[in-house]
Structure formats: C-alpha cells, structure tokens
Amino acid sequence: MRGGKSSFLGLGHFVRKISDFKTTEYEPTAVVLPVLLLRLGPACAGANYPQFNLTCRMRFLNNRGRPLMNTFWGLMGYLPLLLYGLLLYWLLVIVPRWFKAKLKGSTAHGEQGKSVSPESAPEPSQRRRNLSAILAQEDGYSDLLSPIRTEPARSGNGIHIGGSVSAPSAVSENVSVILRRQIPPNLDEPSRSWLGGLPCMPEEIEWPRSVSSEYPDKGERPLHFLAQICCADLPKELWGGLGPREGWLLLFIDPNQGCPAGNDAFRVIHIPQVGLERAPPFDLGPVHDGVYTGPDYRYLLPGEQVPNIWRRWPIDTVSVPNDARHVEGRVLVAPDDFASHLYPGQQIAPERDRPSPIRPLTYGQALYALHNQRAGLERSLPPIQLSPVFCSELHKEGIIREICEHGERQAQKAQEDRQALLARVQSGDESDRLTEQLKWNSARIDHAERQTAWLQEMGDADAIIRYLEESPALEAAWQDGLRTKVDALIEAVRKHDPEAPLSQQDWDELVAVFENRDFVRWQNDRIREAVDQPTIRFREHRRGSRLNPPIAMREFMADMYVDPARRTLIPDDALPAYEANWRQLYSNRPHRMGGYHDGLQSDAVPGPAKDLLLFQIASDDAMHWCWGDAGAYYFWIKPKHLAAGDFSGVEMWLECH
What we know:
alpha+beta; Hypothetical protein YwqG fold; seven-stranded antiparallel sheet; 18 helices
C-alpha cells in the first residue's frame, strides 16, 4: 500500500512529544519515578544482578520444551539492565532539564519565557474557545466562518519589534484556518488562494526540483504544485501571531513517494509578490505513477497519460476556533459533520454518496463512453466442459419435469410473498429495504417463469446439452459483432472536436445503436443434494449492450465546473447533486493551516505546541486527491523558524489507514 510505513507515524509523533516533556508540569513525577526505579532495580536483581541473571538462565534451560516460558525467562535476565538504563537517562537528561527550566523561571504550565502579568495575559476564553458551545449558536459560528480579515489579537507568544519576532519554544493557538473550496467558485475575478492548477510566481523563482530518496536513480525531478495561499488573508492570531502576513505561501510535493519524510518530498516557498501563471516544466511527471495506493485513473483512454497537474480550485481562508475534544479515547478537532458548518444552509451529500453520472456533454466525453463499452467486450470465453455426472443426472427419467415443477412452486411461493409485501406498502411502509425486497421477489418470479419456458422449448436432455456446449460460441459471435459497431462509432466520433458540445439528440442516437441487443443464455449452475429440490439447477446469464455515460463523468464534471470557458455546458438541473457531493469532507477531515491537526494515526495534543501545523492537506474527492490509503499530509514547523520566515526546516508526515 502506498503509505506502507504510515502506521508507525502515530508512534513517532508520540515519541517526539515525550522528548519535548517538561518536568515542571509533573514535578511529583520527577521524584517518584527515580525512587521507583531505585526500588525496582534491586528488587528484580535481588541486590545481586549476577545471581538474578543466573536464576533466569537456569529457568530458561529448564523450560526448553515450552517456547513461551523459554522466551519469558530469557528476556527477564535483562530487566535490571533496562531499569538501571532508564534511571541513568532520567538522571543525566531529564533532571538537568528540570533544573534548567526552574532556573529560567518556568511557569506552572510549562510555558517558557517571561512571566505574563494578570493585566496583560489573555483570558482563558481568548486563548481557547469552546467549539461545541459556539456551534450551538448558529449565528455566532457563522460569523466566525466568514472569510474576512480579523484584527490582531494580543498574545504572549511573540513580541513584534520592528518587524522581528522573538519566538518562544512553544505557542498557544486560539484559531485555525480552514482552506474551504469555493462552491460555487468565483470565476469572475482572480483567485487570491487556490488548490491545484499552476503557481503564479515571478520568473526569477525557480520551479522546485529534488532527487527522490526513493528513486535516486531517476535524478533530479520537478515537484508537483499543490497550493498557493495569500498570507494577507490569514488572521493575525494564526500560529500565535507568527509567520508572514504579506506575500504568498506556495506548497510543492512529490506525490509518488510511498512514505515521504525528507525534504526531498516537498518544498514550501514564500514569495513577496505574485507573477504570471507558470507553465509546468517539460519533465514534470504524472501526479500518480500507480506504484502505491492512490487515486484511480483507470478511466483513461488507451495510450493516454495520467495528468501532471491537478485541477485548479479557488478557496476561501476561513478562521475557526482552535479547540479539541476527547471522544472515546481519541482527541478530535473538527466537529461532527463539519461540512455543514463550513457551508451553512447548503445541501451536503452523505459521505461516500456519489451522484449518478449524467450523459456526456462533449464529443470527447462520448469517446470515453464508447471506449468503456469496448472494454466490456474484451471478455475471454472458454469452451464449456460438462461433467459426466451432470450429463448422467440430466438423462434421468423425469428430471426435466421435476425441475419445471419445482420452478412453478417457487414462483407460487414468490407470488404469496409479493402479496404480503404489497400489503405492507399499502399500510404506509415505504422503506428502502422493502423496495429492495419487492425487486428481488419480482426477479424470482420472472426467473422461474423463463426457466420453465426454456426447458419446455428444449424438450429433452440431449437438446439441453447441445445448447450448453454451443452457447459460448454464440456469445463470442455476439461480442465480435457488437465490437465492430463500437469501433465504427469511435472512428466517427474522433472526427469531431473533443471540446465540441454534444447535444441530447446526438447522445440519444448513439444510445439507440445498442438498444435491445442484450445477449442471454442459460448455464448449468451446480449439482447439489437438497430436500424437496432437484439436484440440477440452471441460471440465466445476461450481458447488457446499453451504452452508458463514461465512468469518469464525475471527474469531467469537476474539471468543467472550475473552468470558466466550459462551465456553461453543465445543465442547471445537474448541478445541485454534484455540488452537494463536492461539499463533502473525506472522513470529516478538512484542509487546514494552524491549530490542532486532524490525525489518522496520531491525535492532537492540547496545550502549547512546539511544532506548529503549517499545512494539513487531506484526501479530497473533489480534487481527485487520495494520499496513500485515504490519508493526509501534515507539514510542521518550529516557532523560531516560522518567526524568521525560514521554511527549510519544515517536516512532512503522511498518515493513512
């Protein structure tokens, strides 16, 4: 899978937090743990490590026949060494760090730096707001979600002096910024921030390139552009007041690394002003090379290359409170059904619910539909080999009559069940389950009736055997004939401009070519022993010929939706269902800057942070983004680096399922 090592990222995040441990927050532990280790070590060793080790080794030898006990006593011999090692680490690393912090006058909450007077310290409600309480007040929360610039808030996390910032080692954040895709997008004026597409940067800024640690033999390759954010639209409180508020932040990544960790997999650039839209480098590769789990590009035409850029989608930067809550042992950040708060009053489709594809709107899209049709006609049809047991059973006297009578009993039982189901409908039951039961019941009745008619038409066992043996050749002939028609239509459609509009009448004419051309044949199912049932069964094998919209129609719709030149081709009645789908958040995880992260393998740690979330870029169906197995990228930066505008030390994680 693409994120093969991502399962360990949550553990890595935990270890990093342990390394940042502040003993001033847990002063009793600084005393209790060394005492505990001093007691456990001698207790395990019996004040005599060689004697303890010898005892363990003797028990190890005495349990050679029992692997589990063997392993246990083998490891127990090293327990005192482990305990004494922990004690030594505590004395040499943790305790000096504690005394150093005490000498610097650390506060009781572990925030380093100068103490803040009660008059100048922000109130707790200013430092962290209760998100659930805000969500209960729709008007108040909708104000917070408005994409407007906010006034700077006072913060003890950084001091602005002449444009320079003295950055603390840990920062308390009270806001986060959501990168909300515009639905509908504002295509009448230039975007200030966007996802995908191409960057707008000055010509003197080189397109970032790197040598992949995973594919060093491929040499230096350009990275893929992911996002461009207008820093002037970021609230002053973001990252505790640190970071740029002028210019633009640009994000580039290598999406084809399995578990990106080094700076060869991404680049963050800050530019003071925008330039013209840059064309991609000639050697920019595909956004997905197919090696790891990721987005599906199997809909492409034969010989067509995976695109090397993503669609460009304008976004709003939306300020929300930075809050976290504990739910069933996890720390969650985004409120439930967050999309409904980001798009208040708008229709949101249920997660994983996708709209039905509409007809092709251009000749190019019709070409995809025809190629999908042709791909379904490439099936290999091996010859039928009937077993001697089946042929012997079929020649038994009365077996065909027995099969027909059993089918009639099944149809009669299905009719009775149908009457009971219809009675429930008349009583007001309109559940989806009841609807499915009615469909299945009707299919049972039809199958029994058609099977009886076919057996009566065949007449005897020899006719049935000839039919079964010849039917694969008949199906192959049907397949070849239909494929010839598809090839002729493909050549005819290729003569049109791919971007030329396809009318409803043109599409109906293409569909009519394949109407009523289904292929149906009967197959022997299996022989089985059952009470009151014949040992032989038959089932109907049906292959449809209907021409359907292309499976990639959803991707085509998204491309047209954000393209001013082609958006007018989308029928008005088709937009509501697609817009509701595009407002979804995959696994309720938004794109985010600052604040707590919405982790998959790790949880946010409430309180001051030593690593600030520069970007969170989640999997997104509307962007056709699937990072690993439906995961997310997290970009972290130290406060001192953010204050200095130094993005060379940014770290990136990939977390996925």
